[in-house]
Amino acid sequence: MRRQFFVPAETCAGSAAEARRTVLRDLHDGVGPSLAAVALGLRSARQLLTSDPAGAARLLAVLEDEMHSAIDDIKALVANENPASVAKLGLVGAVERFVGALRSRLHVVIDVVVLGEIPSLPDAVSVAAYRIVREALTNVVTHADARTCQVRLWFDSELHVEVVDDGKGAAELSTGVGLASMRQRARDLGGNFLVGPGLDGGTRLAAALPVS
User: Could you tell me which residues come within 8 angstroms of residue 207 by beta carbon, excluding any fewer than 6 positions away?
Assistant: First the structure.
């Protein structure tokens, strides 16, 4: 006897809408910060063209590599794979690479502080933490008008991620896609996400991500 199964139309529509939101969020948090960093680099290269043509050429070569990395991230997203940087370097290495790219073209002092040892993490936790850090740093360099920023990572039965700056303050934060996306990434893992005062009236974004 042939068995038939029926899935309610509203269930299919809901699943499709959720899948669409997930893809848009991954594009925003994954590719968006990469393109923002490249845009900052192009601005720096343009400023160097007359005073240091050789330096501009070196920076443009770096930006070309970063564009290839962004393309790899898009391919990974389409294939439902982890971001290339996380897959190759791990969470800490990927964060340090992104921060290094920002340092080379900004006047903001950004430090990465790893407190203790970070154990091997589930892929979902590493990717969520990486994208939270990237989106938070993109907000800092484009909106906060900060002079210093610190990324802190530590583990004590769950992974803790903090991005603290001395910029305009939490009151200046947008309630748009970026903040909602970071909060949702933490919630998807059963974790917490908080925004509050940072250094000297700046902003502190903190996520606690369970690993089980």
Answer: 128, 129, 132, 160, 161, 162, 182, 185, 186, 191, 192, 193, 194
Domain of 194 in residue numbering reads as 9-210
Our count of domains for the chain comes to 1
Residue pLDDT, tens place only, 56-104: 888 888 777 777 777 776 766 655 556 778 888 899 999 998 888 887 7
What pLDDT digit, counting tens, does each position of 19-42 carry? 556 656 666 666 667 777 777 778
CATH assignment of the domain containing 202: 3.30.565.10
CB 67 within 8 A of CB 57: no
Residues in contact with 122: Cβ distance below 8 Å, sequence separation at least 6, in sequence order:
211
